[in-house]
Amino acid sequence: MFRPLLAALLCACALQVQAAPFTLTDTAGATHALADYRGKWVVVNVWASWCAPCLAEMPELEALSRGHADLVVLGLAADGLDARRVDQFAQRLGVSYPVIAGDDQALRQFRLRAFPTTVVYNPQGEQALVKEGRVTRAEIEGLIAAAQAARPGLALNAH
């Protein structure tokens, strides 16, 4: 009785959502478009300087960014700071991945409801996860491992 329901639930959970394309410009002036990262996992973390859980997860995201050759982390600041202040703030926290001073247009692309919010895209550009609240490196690596088990070819390679 429950097997068909469980099977349907598991299939629904395994479905990926084709993501709307995004283009963001970081504090150094470089442009980052989802299409540019085809073949890589992309993690977009939306944060604010006043958000304690946001700041607490940044070391995890930094370690994730440094630990995998086929993964890109992008930080999107959502508290209205200008690019110079966002860059200085990120540097003080030891963040080396690209950070973006989010304007209204950039933030609308992610339909935020909470801080922090992390959106993970698989190498095909499909949205694999939207997580509201603090995320850990282990959670993201676990998601990728589960996706790889379900769909071979979505591997995550270490540096």
Automatic annotation (TrEMBL):
Keywords: Redox-active center, Signal. Residues 1-19 form the signal peptide. Residues 13-149 form the Thioredoxin domain. Transmembrane segments: none annotated. One of its GO terms (molecular function) is disulfide oxidoreductase activity. CDD domains: TlpA_like_family. InterPro entries: AhpC/TSA (IPR000866), Thioredoxin-like_sf (IPR036249), Thioredoxin_CS (IPR017937), Thioredoxin_domain (IPR013766), Thioredoxin_ResA/DsbE_sf (IPR050553). SUPFAM superfamilies: Thioredoxin-like. It holds the Pfam family AhpC-TSA. Coiled coil: none annotated. It comes from the Bacteria. This is TlpA family protein disulfide reductase.
